[in-house]
Amino acid sequence: MQPVAAADITAEGGAAPSTIPGPRPLEPLGVEVPSTVPTHWYNLAADLPVPVPPHLHPGTHEPLGPEDLAPLFPMALIQQEVTTERYVEIPQTVREIYAMWRPSPLVRAHRLERALGTRARVYYKYEGVSPVGSHKPNTAVAQAYYNAVEGVMRLTTETGAGQWGASLSMACALLGMTCEVWQVRASYDSKPYRRMQMETYGGICHPSPSDLTEAGRAMLAKDPDTTGSLGMAISEAVEAAVKDPGAHYSLGSVLNHVMLHQSVIGQEVLVQLAEAGERQADVVFGCAGGGSNLGGLTFPLIGQNLREGTTTRAVACEPAACPSLTQGEYRYDHGDVAGLTPLLKMHTLGNDFVPPAIHAGGLRYHGMSPMVSHAVELGLMEAVAVEQDDAFAAGIEFARAEGLIPAPESTHAVAAAMAYARTSASDGEVVVIGLSGNGVLDLAAYSAYV
Amino acid sequence: MQPVAAADITAEGGAAPSTIPGPRPLEPLGVEVPSTVPTHWYNLAADLPVPVPPHLHPGTHEPLGPEDLAPLFPMALIQQEVTTERYVEIPQTVREIYAMWRPSPLVRAHRLERALGTRARVYYKYEGVSPVGSHKPNTAVAQAYYNAVEGVMRLTTETGAGQWGASLSMACALLGMTCEVWQVRASYDSKPYRRMQMETYGGICHPSPSDLTEAGRAMLAKDPDTTGSLGMAISEAVEAAVKDPGAHYSLGSVLNHVMLHQSVIGQEVLVQLAEAGERQADVVFGCAGGGSNLGGLTFPLIGQNLREGTTTRAVACEPAACPSLTQGEYRYDHGDVAGLTPLLKMHTLGNDFVPPAIHAGGLRYHGMSPMVSHAVELGLMEAVAVEQDDAFAAGIEFARAEGLIPAPESTHAVAAAMAYARTSASDGEVVVIGLSGNGVLDLAAYSAYV
Questions:
Q1: Residue spans with biased composition (Low complexity) (chains A, B) (predicted)?
Q2: How far apart (Å, rounded) are the C-alpha atoms in residues B309 and A423?
Q3: Cβ contacts of B425 on chain A, cutoff 8 Å
């Protein structure tokens, strides 16, 4: 053995931060992956009594073909967007990366139960253990992987508060790719930590609108002082991808393939509840923004209801300030403000709806995942709206009982579940809360509430 | 089953954030605790060939008696400070709280190994999964528990960057206690997130010096614009505890009972390495500030060396800017600037040493845990100093390979381990890195480096 000398630890010997040497890291490494981590993603489309309505071309209003999406997405993801296969195999390289933080914990909330005085058995499924603190990497890693397999080395995306941009930046770092993120100017200026997180992973983060795209320049010409919007950032990221034959675009929620990737959450819940000796989850509460945490958490349980006759109730918990499921119309609408994206059949407040500046930035979206909307329409899922103050009050009570500070998004599920456990749950009922992330970088929001 | 109605989720029905109802939560709840979580803390003092020198009274220079510490600490902790028993049973209530995040993961760093081109097997033990993102809650929960058992409902402490204050605030929330923290004014003003974390847990955080104590008022009278110091904050917290018969003081590092509580880290490493099929850790790298992560990580392995003849090397990785082990004297010195605390035999840069304002705030201490100092003096542990730039470069390379952004403190261990794995490790050698926490709330420091 060699002595450890200070001289060994120099900038030359110590690090080359800008590049990862060696071959592109797409091959599995032979990592042992815990058996609780699923081998396949689960696709609710296979078990639905009525098919999910197709996405429509924004010009022709005809169902989208693969060629319409090819400039933006790799073929594997385009196929996943429309497949009705029940199970899609997870590439082993993706499973090995999942194993860095998966299975995420399913924790019995003993102290919260005592604080609530409930005889229900309350569990929370905690996605905050991922490196960026939320569920977003579950799909970021999968999307980056399929792009890399097709030789695409550069991904573009938009981000609001920054959780998605950080997740995709991390995934790209792990797979030796470049990530370029357009972040809504208002968040870019006011929430610097997420941008710093992207940059630490090697991601490139631009405030949007930027002068790097035609869309951005047009927006700036119209209003040089604009603070931007998610719709504008989407336009910039899409334009950048379309103009570079070596680049693709990546979306962090809403679409069917994102729901598919997030199904690892609910599949793990099924295994972990069985390990804990529970027959089924009786009620599952998930927060609802674009729908990816909610769908990932609940779809495997809804599928079990449809196939095996279990009776799990799935409850979507959305902010009262942005109530697409409880107040919106179920119709075709665009995903962006400018109306450039495909038409999606979903619950929508209208693509010109401007949500109030609530703290749960991840829930500020005018529409909803078409698969979640469809499940609600079929009566497979319920929906409830939660006021922001009630959500924070619940988040604080949860933190003081269980130690974890939930993300502002997650507090909507926490509030609904706590109210249910306190007032309505019967003895021994199994309540599961989807904790989509932690609130460490959202402490200013808590502070404003306290 | 009842429907979930929005009306159920109101501020009245939803939360009472300031109090947790029901009896004081000291009794175990019957939680199933994973067997990897130790049942006993391990005490290196039992296996040392030479006893640890006693702490001395600052006035008489005689060894401290229990009565000297009784105004500050509960008797159980005073006994733990001097015990030479090899194992101290962990109260089941504390184990149940540990089980919320323990065992912490021991992860094989496959991608880092590939990036380094090493044939060593590199693992990291990750304490960042705790609710506050570092190892500090391991002792915070234990200290709060023993105080609560003796009926002490209020704890005071000091904090620099705020990790310790947040950890003790969380522990007090879980056990129904009050926590009052004096935070160095410079950090209080510049790093608001940790204060917000304390307040979310119900902790009370004062900037130090404050006008709430005689010590603080004297300091303010002398210099109304002072930005404070850890030594001054200690004086305020100690004064507040001594003046309130219902309060005690709590310290987050340095002392023997803190090393004891942190031994859960290294004990888990032993079990987890065996589960991974490893015969022993060949080299373990831990960051060295006050010594609690380092001691907790390495003492169980050093003890195994002493009892069973394993040959694990333990390497303390300290900042070159605050090099107590590699440059300091081994002698009796005070823990605080004013010289009011007991004299501790330790490696020290002098209690008037003012460390530069490095980003790894948790490593800015003039002294070192007496047990760590003693282990180094006996040749049971090595020490190396790491420059800040090399530490950040290593932290970024680690983040891009493994996804996790290490705390600035942890990057010192990462840098030394990476340099060793790259240049000196032999084939198949088992290298373990102590990742004391994550760097999510330290992203500004990374950003300054990038």
A1: 1-16
A2: 59
A3: 2
Q: Compute CA distances A390 → A84, A365, A418, B114, B405, whole Å.
A: 39, 20, 11, 48, 33
Distance CA B404, CA B384 (A): 24
Judge whether residue B18 has pLDDT over 50: no
d(C-alpha B138, C-alpha B94), whole Å: 9
Percent of chain A with pLDDT over 90: 82
Which residue among A21, A170, A174 sits closest to B117, beta carbon to beta carbon? A21
Which residues of chain A does B389 touch, with a Cβ-Cβ cutoff of 8 Å? 11
pTM of the entire structure? 0.93
More confident residue, A65 or A356: A65
Q: What is the mean pLDDT of residues B42-64?
A: 96
pLDDT for res B138: 98
* Proportion of chain B above pLDDT 90, given as a percent: 83
* A contacts of B174 (beta carbons < 8 Å): 111, 400-401, 403
Domain range annotation of chain A = 40-47+69-87+135-249, 96-134+263-449
CA nearest to A127 within chain B: B129
Per-residue b or e along B102-112, where b marks 16 or more CB atoms closer than 10 Å to that residue's CB: bbbbbbbbbbb
Residues 6+ apart with CB under 8 A from A26: A93, A145, A148, A149, A175
A311 burial (CB, 10 Å; 0-12 / 13-18 / 19+) is exposed
pLDDT in tens, A23-54: 457 899 888 899 999 999 999 999 999 999 99
Q: What is the pLDDT of residue B8?
A: 52
Quote the pLDDT of residue A191. Answer: 84
Task: Grade residue B141 by pLDDT with cuts at 50, 70 and 90.
Answer: very high
Question: Which CATH code for domain A96-134+263-449?
Answer: 3.40.50.1100
Does B22 score more than 80 pLDDT? no
Task: Supply the pLDDT for residue B402.
Answer: 96
Q: Which residue in chain A has the smallest CA separation from B137?
A: A403
The architecture CATH gives domain B40-45+68-87+137-249: 3-Layer(aba) Sandwich (3.40)
Q: What is the 3-state secondary structure (H, E, C) of A367-411?
A: CCCHHHHHHHHCCCCEEEEECHHHHHHHHHHHHHHHCCCECHHHH
The reply to whether A96-134+263-449 shares the fold of A40-47+69-87+135-249 is yes
C-alpha distance from A2 to closest chain B C-alpha (Å): 6
Residue A255 DSSP symbol: S
Specify the higher pLDDT residue, B338 or A124.
Answer: A124
Confidence of residue A7 (pLDDT cuts 50, 70, 90): very low
- Mean pLDDT score across all residues of chain A: 92
A13 contact residues in B (CB cutoff 8 A): 419, 422-423
For A31, which of B29, B110, B450 is closest by C-beta distance?
A: B110
pLDDT tens per residue, range B225-239:
988 888 889 889 999
Contact A17 B397 (CB under 8 A): yes
CATH of region B102-134+262-449: 3.40.50.1100
CATH level 2 (architecture), domain A40-47+69-87+135-249: 3-Layer(aba) Sandwich (3.40)
CA distance B162 to B62: 34
Search chain B and give the residue with CA nearest A5.
Answer: B384
| Residues B163, B134 contacting (CB under 8 angstroms) | yes
Kindly list the residues from chain B whose CB atom is less than 8 angstroms away from the CB atom of residue A22: 114-115, 117
Vertex B335 angle, CA B334 and B336, to 5°: 95
ipTM surpassing 0.85, yes or no? yes
Q: Give the nearest partner residue to A20 out of B96, B115, B403, using CB atoms.
A: B115
| Contact criterion met (CB < 8 Å) for B283 and A4 | yes
Tokens of B243: 């003046």
